[in-house]
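Comment thread on ticket #2218

A.B. wrote:
> Attaching the input chain for the structure job we discussed in standup.
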Amino acid sequence: MATKPTGTKAPAKKAPAKTTTAKKAPAKTAAKASTAKKVVKKAPASKAKTAQKKNISGYGVGGVDVVMSVDQVAKEAASIAASGPTKAHLEELANNDAFLVIEDLRAGYGKMEILHDFSLRIGKGQALCLIGPNGAGKSTVLHSIFGFTNIFSGSITVDGKNVTALKPSEKLSSAGIAYILQDKSVFPQMTVEENLLMGGFLKNKPAEAKLAAERVFDKYSRLADRRNKPAGVLSGGERRLLEISRALVMEPDILLVDEPSIGLEPRFIDMVFEILDDLQKVDGKTIVMVEQNAKKGLAFADIGYVLVSGETALADPGNALLENPDVGRLFLGG
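C.D. wrote:
> Ran it. Output below, let me know if you need it in another format.
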C-alpha cells in the first residue's frame, strides 16, 4: 500500500519543475530583446564617430575630402602644366651632360598623337621616374624610346647617336636599350636558365648568351638556386627579378622599366627597388621608369617628370617633387 502513494507523488514533483523552466524562457527572450535594443541605440553613435574621422587615406596622409576623380586630377594638373619646364632646366637636372635625349617628340599609335613636343634629358647612371594621371602618355614615352610607336617628328639620341628610326631589336643590340615589361612576361614552363637564355637571343653566338647568363647567376643567388626549376614556381618577387635579369643578358646601358611594383606584395616591392638601386649605383645603368606607386618611384629616382596630356607639366629632382604640395595633393594622396 505504501508503494502507490510514492509513485503518485513523483510526477507531481516533476511537473512544477517543467512549469518553472517554461516561466524562465520569456525572461531570457526579454533579455535578448533588451540587448538588441541597446545595439540599435548605439549604432547611430558609432556612425557619427566614423563620419567625424576625416584623415583617411591609403597613403596614411590626407583625407576623404582630397579624393578626386581621374578627370578632376587631369584637369587640375593641366592648369599646373600651363608653363612647363624649360629645356635649360631639363639639362640642369641631367647635370648638363645628358646621355639619353628626347627632342620635341610627337608620337603615338596609328594616326593618334599621344606625345606632343615632348622632351627629356637624363645623364648616364641617373634614374628618372615618370608619373601622372592615367592616359598622360607615360608608357608611350617608354614605347617610343624602344620603337613601339609611330614617331611623327622629333628625335631620340643615345650618347650622341640618333636612334629614332631603329627597330626594337636594333635598339637592344646596337643602342644598348632594354625594355622590361610590366608583369607576367616570363615563360612559366621553361626553366629559370632557359628564360635567361631567351634574353640573349640577339647575341652573335649561343656561348655569349650562356656566359652572360652565368654572370647573372653569380650576381643573384636566388636565381642560381632555382636555375633548373620551372619559372612558374617562382614567387612574384622572384619572377620580377627574372624579368629584370633577362634584360641584363644583353648587357644594356639603358633600362626602360614599366611598373616594376605592379601586382607585388610590399616585401617584394622593396626587394625589386633594391635590385634597381644596385643596378644604377653599382653597375651604372641609366633607368627610365614608369611607376604607379608615385611615392616609391620619386623616392628612388634622381629626376621626376609629371606628365599631363602628353606634355611635361613639372620636372624636378625626385625628392623635390615629393615635397611639392600640388604633386602631393594630385598624385600622392594628400
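A.B. wrote:
> Thanks. Noting for the ticket: Residues 68-331 form a domain with the Rossmann fold fold (CATH 3.40.50.300).
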